[in-house]
Design a protein that fits this description.
The protein has 213 residues and is of the alpha/beta class. It folds into two domains: 138 residues, HAD superfamily/HAD-like (Rossmann fold), CATH 3.40.50; 57 residues, Orthogonal Bundle (DNA polymerase, domain 1). 44% of the residues lie in helices and 12% in strands. It contains ten helices and six strands; from the N terminus they run E-H-H-H-H-H-E-H-E-H-H-E-H-E-E-H. Strands 3-2-1-4-5-6 form a six-stranded parallel β-sheet, sandwiched between helices. Helix 6 links the parallel strand 2 and strand 3. Helix 2 crosses helix 3. It starts with a strand and ends in a 6-residue tail after the last helix.
Length: 213
Amino acid sequence: MELDTIFFDLDATLYPESNGMWAEIRRRIDLYMHERMGFSAAEIPALRQSYYKNYGTTLRGLMANYAVEAREYLGFVHDLPLDEYLRPEPELRQMLLSLPGSRWVFTNSDLDHAQRVLAKMNIANCFEGIIDVYTLEPYCKPMTEAYQIALRQTGTSDPRRCALLEDSVSNLATARDMGFFTVLVGSNGIPHNFDRSIEDIHQLREKVPELWK
């Protein structure tokens, strides 16, 4: 079946995890929980793992249990000097624009962060739109409802005509179960049963030619 709608995760997918920015975002999440909420450094890893398992993201767990305000939290964790991590990506831009069908960013992050990242990479106008944490609320990936919202936002009724590119195995698993064509990005040898696996987004045309058919 033809794939005519392609969803791209943002962080650690459109840019490589190896550039250090995603690690800095995770560090700032820990810093928020320690400095703003008073959790000890020792208890944060287990708490975050529990929230990720039960709520999909640390933010959703904190909102459910401590009434954390999303905009304040996201403003803190995304307060980054993007110039240290990102640069224009002309080859990626050309590849994205060559894809047939529609292209969307589908992220558990917020619109402001996504727009800043895409602008730094000079790929903002490669996408029809951004489906962000506020579009998805009160859900987030990997909740099935989040994917249903994404489909409605793009006017797509059949998930079998959609592809999702993601670094998160759990987020891809939901998409796979719904019928999406799934591509694990930055696999680093992770065992998986998705349709394709690439180490870096720049390998997309070489290793996932189905997207151009």
